[in-house]
Amino acid sequence: MLQASDSVISTTNFSRAEWLALLARAPLDLLEQVLKDHTQDAPLWLRPPETGLMMVEGRAGGTGERFNLGEVTVTRCALRLPNAQKVDPVGIAYVVGRSHRHAYLAAIADALLLSAAWQDHLKQTLLAPIKELVTQQNSVRQAHANSSKVDFFTVARESGAGQDDED
Amino acid sequence: MTAVNLSEVGAGFQDIARGSQSIFRAALEALSYPGRQVAVNAPFDTPTAANRSSSGLLLALLEPGSRLWLSPSLIGTDAAAWIVFHTNCEITQRSSDAEFAWIKHWQELPKFSSLCLGTDEYPDHSTTCVIDVVPTHDNMPPSLFTLTGPGIKTATTIELQFTTLNERNAFIQDRTLNHSLFPRGVDLFLATTHGLIGLPRTTSIELSDEASKCM
After folding, report:
1. Which residues span the domain enclosing B74?
2. Is the reported ipTM for this assembly greater than 0.95?
3. What was the pLDDT predicted at A5?
4. B1 CB near a chain A CB, below 8 Å?
5. Which residue range(s) make up the domain with A57?
6. Interface membership of B17 toward A (CB under 8 Å)
7. How many domains does chain A have?
8. Which of B1, B159, B168, B180 has the greatest number of beta carbons closer than 10 A?
9. CA-CA distances (angstroms) from residue A19 to A34, A35, A119, A122, B188?
């Protein structure tokens, strides 16, 4: 994880949507380790972790009509940091799966990222490594998918278009 | 769906199942014994713009998609954000379309005929009106009302505080009309600082003699 410091410079600008997406994909042990100082006291729950189903919608090719792809189990929660006031930022998390702990830690991280005191520190120690990891996982998946790619340009018709019905 | 401003939102029920069930029980009791004040005990963070028993009742009763109409001085307050965040209900602009109406003051109470009165086939589709009753320090003394009807053995009395005589008379007139529409009509919950008072459409309400004398 430590070699991530090289790429930190280019990845210090995260929007809230981006960091929420990263936190939802973060490995649990990394969250536990980075946030261990903030999880001693109970937070002020706005909405304790709850698990439910959400419908995922897709568009064929990214541009077609919307359709229901399927349901996914999601755990969400909303909280304020321990000893926070009513005007202090609210951390939220939506995490795929049933891990209440993951949603809790992601929401704590979100609340900290919204407060100026912790933002820069957490971006370096938490978001950068997660981004590194997610990018790496994506490239492995992409490489795996690419290995089965078929190029169809060799099947060019020579003559008599429409004579042979294809499957 | 509208985004909720979370900066002022407080917590909902500490224990969702027990909290909403205990308030549901209180609501049942309030409607079964009109005029009786029933305490609201479940722990939750009350929004600053509304009183405890009205917020608790709506927090327990509303569900995703329920249509809630807000009286003008509740629109945009932390109470509105709080109830939408916790129940995922829908705020409606059309009072005639509302399943629930949340009213902050007597003076903002709309004519019952502008709310949903239900139909003869489905009288249960009518609006349930929740009114915040806050003690005022005006010159007008509280008015004493006599209640009769189902759930009341002989008669019972409640004291209501209005700001003006006109306001009181308009309420009496409108409520009498509402009563005469049975089985259609609006059910009322008066949310005091101490608890809920049910005033279902079956209850007939009139000004007590002693109260009218001192006017």
Report:
1. 14-135+180-202
2. no
3. 36
4. no
5. 14-136
6. no
7. 1
8. B168
9. 15, 15, 11, 11, 46
